[in-house]
Amino acid sequence: MKLTKYIYTGPCSSSASLRVGKEILDVRLIPNAPADLPADHEYTKVLLQLKHLELAPVEKPTSEKGAK
Description:
- With 68 residues, this protein is mainly β.
- The protein has one helix at residues 42-49; strands at 4-8, 14-20, 23-29, 33-37, 53-55.
- Strands 4-1-5 form a three-stranded antiparallel beta sheet, covered by helices on one side. The chain has a two-stranded antiparallel sheet with strand order 2-3.
């Protein structure tokens, strides 16, 4: 199951159980906190249309080279 990281910007905390193929994904949505959701799921699409989700910024891997 491929998940995309979003920031939930909805008005209140909530939870959902999503069927993804044969699996169940339980998600907890907390305002201004990250949430991993399947991008192609209908629930995710609705939250995006309601403007309750934003794509999370991509974290750049840190390099240990040159650090002492």
